[in-house]
From TrEMBL:
GO terms for molecular function: 3'-5' DNA helicase activity; ATP binding; DNA binding. Keywords: ATP-binding, Helicase, Hydrolase, Nucleotide-binding. Pfam families: AAA_19. One of its GO terms (biological process) is recombinational repair. This is DNA 3'-5' helicase II. SUPFAM superfamilies: P-loop containing nucleoside triphosphate hydrolases. InterPro entries: DNA_helicase_UvrD/REP, P-loop_NTPase.
């Protein structure tokens, strides 16, 4: 085997040696790994080194190395790649924090009583939790006679509050002398601030290693770039994913973290298409202004696809991923266009902020899947509670009949028919938030002088939509689609990627981001918006291994076009015409 290293391998080795030096010297560090740099590989190498080095001492002291992940999928991958070593305690942040705080029952009761979200429940129970145990299992907030069940959103604030106490901090150090955090940039902002103020640089604290990339922070609530005087910064200047054509663009986009490729001779392709010369009507409004109408956008996309096929692309789902941030066009392709047209704000259905959508996607659909598989325990778990009392065969028969009717309505009925079915039979029951809005709609007097509220107007329109659109929406949100939003592919890679960029999201305007990029200094009032858009754009452009194409359906300013020329090269850019 050749000892000659590729440029990417040499860059990766430099970063690993810097990381090994920190681990040896007990210094906390932040390893910044751009897209395709092999962040998980670096994390695994750190864990393997620690397992071998500390395999005798850690068990003697009843200690472990903590590895905090952002998702259960990442947790399972890391556990698998470290042979499920008992020296590694690998969990998501919520599970990790619960393992720390669960033993502090008395202070937990006091802290829970002080949480605003618990006030109503505790007031109804007499104003105190008494001697109830604090538990965390399904992540739903509930108060029972002998216990209080925490919501997901309760765990981190409670942990942060306990970090104020020296006894708690000492317990953390005694259990976990080394704590590694994966995807640090998306880790809860308040939790990271507590780590910075209560642990980093403090005598007797654990050694921390943070792995991630602040340019890939795309979730609200994450800490973003983590800076602290007691953190050693390590940059991984490697890209094992993409060909040089693509990496050159990423380097021009992000010159402060230059990446080297694995194979400098590998050939790829970059194409950028804009629709500035497209004539005719464009959409208006704060969220849609300047974008092509949906039907016209589909024509533009088909136009681009034809050009890519002529340039040698294989557009089959096995070879090409289409990423979209233009939701009406995406909804049209995916089969939930009427849902998209119903809501004023996309977040109502893309982030499940509307209680009906959250109930359908997160509870009812998984419950129906479990029923179809005859897994009744999972069905009731999906619905967010314990199984109801089934005292007789007739109870079981009633549930079976109700769920069978529901399955038929899901296929052929409207959303309103499904809701009415659940309202009448109460198997399963509608959540309180859903039932409340349904009641408001049923009892609103349209003949009166009061204006029909927008929320009820949206609900009325939603009820008329075929329920099959909910099934399609859930399929899309779960990622089972040849099309994705850019959020859905973070960490993924594909042979070819076509990114379709337009308007329609309240928090995103890529045209404005490109314009600001050419302006030099970013206005403070625009800083958060700019970073959010830049990061998602970077994530999108860094997914392909071989070929990248961008299609802008929104009109771009001359400054935005200048940014595209700077990043991608004038030779890659084409103007589409009808």
């Amino acid at each position: 085997m050749s000892d000659i290293q590729s440029p990417a391998e040499a860059a990766s080795q430099r970063a690993l040696e810097a990381m090994y030096a920190c681990l040896k010297e007990g210094k906390s560090f932040r390893l910044e790994a751009g897209a395709g740099a092999g962040k998980t590989y670096s994390l695994i190498k750190a864990l393997q080194l620690l397992i071998e080095r500390d395999k005798v001492d850690l068990p003697k002291r009843s200690q472990q190395i903590a590895c905090i992940t952002f998702t259960n999928v990442a947790k399972d991958e890391i556990a698998s790649r470290t042979d499920r070593s008992p020296l590694i305690f690998c969990e998501t942040n919520h599970a990790f924090c619960w393992s720390l705080i669960s033993g502090f029952q008395k202070p937990l009761r006091t802290l829970v009583e002080g949480l605003p979200a618990w006030k109503e429940k505790i007031d109804e129970a007499g104003g105190s939790l008494g001697s109830r145990s604090i538990e965390y299992s399904l992540g739903h907030r509930s108060l029972r006679e002998d216990r209080a069940l925490l919501h997901h959103d309760d765990v981190l604030p409670l942990t942060i509050a306990l970090m104020e106490h020296a006894k708690f901090r000492q317990m953390v150090t005694d259990r976990f002398p080394i704590i590694l955090v994966d995807e640090y940039q998306d880790t809860d902002r308040d939790w990271v601030e507590a780590i910075k103020s209560r642990f980093l640089g403090q005598p007797g604290s654990p050694q921390f290693g943070f792995f991630g990339d602040h340019w890939q922070k795309i979730y609200d609530g994450g800490c973003g770039k983590l800076e602290h005087p007691d953190l050693v910064e390590i940059g991984v200047e490697a890209n094992f994913r993409s060909v040089k054509n693509v990496v050159d663009c990423l380097n021009r986009m992000r010159p402060e973290l230059r990446q080297f490729v694995k194979d400098p001779d590998a050939v790829g392709q970059v194409r950028v298409f804009h629709t500035n010369t497209w004539t005719g009507h464009r959409q208006k409004g704060a969220h849609w202004g300047g974008d092509l109408p949906t039907d016209t956008g589909k024509i533009a996309m088909e136009n681009v696809k034809a050009k890519l096929v002529a340039a040698g692309w294989d557009l089959s789902a096995e070879h090409t991923k289409v990423l979209m941030l233009t939701h009406r066009l995406l909804a049209s392709e995916q089969g939930y266009s009427r849902i998209a047209a119903t809501f004023r704000y996309n977040e109502a259905f893309t982030k499940k902020e509307h209680p009906h959508i959250a109930f359908f996607v997160d509870a009812l659909e998984p419950a129906c899947d479990a029923f179809a598989a005859r897994k009744f325990g999972l069905m009731f778990e999906a619905l967010g509670g314990e199984a109801p009392q089934i005292r007789s065969h007739s109870d079981k028969t009633s549930w079976d009949a109700a769920m069978s009717q529901l399955s038929a309505l899901r296929e052929a009925g409207t959303i309103g028919q499904v809701l009415d079915h659940l309202h009448i039979l109460k198997r399963p029951r509608l959540p309180d938030a859903v039932e409340k809005r349904e009641h408001e709609l049923r009892t609103f007097d349209k003949t009166g002088e009061a204006e029909f509220p927008r929320a009820l107007d949206e609900l009325e329109k939603l009820r008329d939509i075929p329920y099959s659109e909910i099934v399609a929406l859930r399929r899309y949100l779960a990622g089972h689609s040849p099309f994705e939003t850019k959020h859905g592919v973070k960490g993924a890679q594909f042979e070819n990627v076509l990114v379709v960029i337009g308007r329609g999201w309240s928090k995103y305007n890529f045209g404005e981001m490109l314009t600001l990029s050419n302006a030099g200094e970013i206005p403070l009032a625009k800083a958060d918006m700019f970073e959010r858009n830049r990061n998602l754009f970077y994530v999108s452009c860094s997914r392909p291994k071989t070929r990248l194409a961008l299609l802008f359906t929104q009109q771009l300013s001359p400054e935005a076009l200048a940014t595209l020329v700077k990043w991608f090269g004038v030779e890659t850019i084409s103007a589409l015409t009808p």
